[in-house]
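Hey, can you fold this?
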Amino acid sequence: MPEYARLERRFPRPGDLKPFLALKDRRGLGRVQRRLASAHTIEDLRRIAQARTPSGPFHYVDGGAEEELGMARAREAFRDLDFHPRILCDVHAVDTSTTVLGGPSALPFGFAPTGGTRMMHAAGERAVVRAAGRAGIPYALSTVGTTSIAALAEAAPSARRWFQMYLLKDRDLSLRMIAEAKTHGYDALIVTVDVPVSGNRLRDLKYGMSYPPQLTLKTFLDASYRVEWWSNLLTTEPYTFTYEEPGVPRSALQVSGFNDNTTTFEDLAWVREAWGGPLVIKGVQTLADARRAVDAGVDGIVLSNHGGRQLDRTPPPLHLLPAAVREVGADTEVMIDSGVRTGSDVVAAIALGARFVLVGRAYLYGLMAGGEAGVDRAAHILRTEVERTMQLLGVTSIAELTPEHVRLFTRRAPVPLY
């Protein structure tokens, strides 16, 4: 048997313990900042958000349609891909900037339009647009947002703002909203086309989600220990939806203004004429519709299954991306959303040919976790993940990302290429 040397031991000196006793210096950080400092991923923000937000608003953000298969598959598509890095590349300086729809963005992603944002946190869309402005990225205000077109512009005059609208039954209201967005400096119009009717969002039914939040015994007990959320809601101005007009009853607008399931591609003509600027169609899920959108004169398309919130069992938009870029990428700007949770997801989509990526749930988790500071934290997390992933892949600019850096796996039949 070999003889092994014994460790030479001694009593520890006080100075030996000092490195192990050092505490993180969080002096000067407020309560919210200390909470957010523990979040290193979007999933961390999600956990904080769930603890601090009543179940109705949280699950409105977190959930999807029916069995939530489309939502899960969109996320699964990003998890299944492989990266193929290059080595021995000088990556000490990384440029994450890009251009989209004729304007600059400091990062290859922007904040997608989301409805009812002030229900997630009273700071709402104003907080999101200010955070987007600091990050140097665009933010799209939703038609069913909870801040007016003018108020959002006043909150962040220098931020790049887009406006998202549905093809409403009330064409006059649509035209007035388009005109207001133009007046207040919004530089792109996104028309969402995958909501002829609302999806069957079962979590909203289960958790009693309503507009505005209604107090029942169940929702009262659920919200009773989320004192800050209720305090913020009740002590700030009552919210109204972006589409609402003074003097028009909310119920009348809800009945007449949405779910126009008679619209067709031909309806894009009056939108394009009224807007006159960059026009994007959001909700494209087949190559045939991508081509028809381009033929209708749009400047961009967003491959999207609405985050899995409309028709369940839809294919992941990421799987359609390479074919869509080949089919229409020379004629229009192809963007993507749905399933994006990390900066590496963003990088993968760009490498596969996307011009730009929209993120929604990611920043809403930050908003619920810590208001405006939480949105800043979400943007910071995604930015550092984008930068790190680019460096590890061996690239220093968005233009250097190519399909050679990524390989997609599909567990199911390929997306139809018709």
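Oh, and this one too while you're at it.
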Amino acid sequence: MADLARVLIQDGTLTLPQAERAAKAARGGDVASAALELKLADEGALVRGMARAHECPGIDLSRSAIPVAWLDAAGGAQFCREHRVVPVAVGRAELALAMGNPDDLAAADEVRFLTGKKILRYAAVGTAVVRALDGIERARAAGAPAWRGERAPALPDRAAGHAAIVKAGDPVASVALPEAEESMEIVGLADVMEPFEPPAPARQAAPPAAPRRPAAAPGAGAPEPHQTLRLEGLAIGKVALVADDDADVRQLVATVLAKMGCVVLQASDGKAALEMVRDAAPDLVVLDAMMPAMHGFEVCRAIKGDRALRTTRVVLCSAVYRGTVGTDAQLAFGADAFIEKPFRLDELTRVFKVALVGPAAAETTEERAAREEGMALWRQAADALTENRAERAVELARQAAAKDPWSAEAHYYLGHALVKLGQLFEAVAAYERAAELRPDVDASYQCLAQAYEKLGFQKSAREAWTRALETCKDPAKKKTIQARLLQLLGAS
């Protein structure tokens, strides 16, 4: 928090003696909370300094109102207290969190996993977060629909929420870039797949005998309790190995694979994983990219470089490496697929389904029909946008995304329509999803970056522009993106 103290002095929020006093009283280096408790500065001014230090907008909770029901949407009171977070906006596809430490990515990822929503992180004074949580629980006990900060505006609806957003400064002027109406026709993997028809029960052969359970690798310890064989599911009798140094992640992935019918083995580091692959010859290996003893990238290269093992399907996962790294990993290390963390369960299932059974299993006849309906709908949404019928475009794009959740185009055009209606929070979630589905296309990243800029998320905007630059194949457009990045860097 030393950086925050300097920012608060530079802003004139605190004098040097006041900053030294707050730093001395701060618990865990939380200067902003100490300054608020000592009444050295107004909460809004402290939040403005935090917004500058963390490069994201902030929330003045004293001027905000939070519906009681929103607390459960962010993991409940206990989780919020442990991480000093409080929800300040809950939308269809996004959730805004006021965070005492907006750099706590682990907490944001956990809320994203619990809710399935895009998480927008806002800076807030930690003490103010705790006070808000106390107030929400008092409001719940009294039967009130919402908690209101002491300076929150009067709202016609007592159950409505209100977030008092504080920005570090005025947004930087934008560089001219392609308009949102730019088309994004993408041919997905499903377009080259044959429909998968499961065999009728009467013609099914008897279940194959369970494979020999491989012995644990030397030094790997006893098998974990959930190494399970289930004689059901499309991957019946196949062996999968999950390697990750995070036990919770291993449990999650193992559960998904077990439900698909796999024998699931586990390893907590790369070296043990490679030994187990050589001993057990699994059908599928799921590797975290960064592990102790030996990185997942190295394990993947060793598997694909071994003549006896190279047909083993390998899925790499990472919370650090993102975007085009997936394509690079497949080319450089031979991985069959790459998934970014935090996981989406539907995406995990789909990737494992293709890896274990083959591309034909990724789409049934019904799914193909739904995808074709979705394609017709997002094309209608694109037409509605060109006719300036944004509300109709939102309706059509939502229908398209419901029909085919894997359509990058549906989410992309939904983002465009939401921007036109001024619904930037939901637009960010839509563009993020389009970029997740097609990380090799720069258009989603460009629109995402512009939406982040309008919201004041400068750090997130820079990250999106960087990913757009990495994926862009047009030299002229790359120069424009580079110029934008330089402007943002100069403004930080």
